[in-house]
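Q: Could you fold this chain for me?
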Amino acid sequence: MRKIANEELNRLSVEDFKSAAKKPLVIVLDNIRSLNNIGSVFRTADAFLIEKIYLCGITATPPHREIHKTALGATESVVWEYAENTIDCITKLKTEGYQILSVEQAEGSVLLQNFQPDFSDNKYVLVFGNEVEGVADEVIAVSDYCIEIPQFGTKHSLNISVSVGIVIWGFCKLK
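A: Sure. Below is the predicted structure, expressed as C-alpha cells.
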C-alpha cells in the first residue's frame, strides 16, 4: 500500500466545482465565534459538494487569515452569503422550498441515524449553532426538525466543525 499523491486524486478545479451538480443541501451557521470552525465548515462543504453556506449574525466572513488557514481555499469554491439575521435567512429559505433542520439536542429531536433524507424530492438546510449556546431557541422554533448526533460520553456536545462533518456524512453516505 502507498499514500496517493495529490495530483493522482483527480479533484475538481475550482471552475469545475462551481459548475458541478450540488447536493440540495445548504448550511446555515448561526452566530459561530471561531474563525477556525468557519474555515473547517467551508472545507467540509467543498468535500461534499454542498450547495451554499449562509454565515449569520456574528459569524465572520471571508476573506480572513484565520478562516483561510482551515478552509485551505474552499472559500473560493463554495458559494456563501452573509445574512445579518438567522431567522430572516431561514424564512427566505423556507419560501424557496427548503426543509429546515437544526442540529441540536431538543425535545422531539430525531437521532441522525433515524433521519432518512430524500434528495429526490426535498432540499434541506442544516443549521449549526454557536459553540456555547447552540442553535438559538427562536431558530429551533421555526425548524421543521431537530437532528441530534448520538453521544455516549460525559460531554454534552461536539465541536461544531466535527458536528458538521458527522451530519453531512450521515446525509450523503450511500444516498
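A (continued): The radius of gyration is 16 Å.
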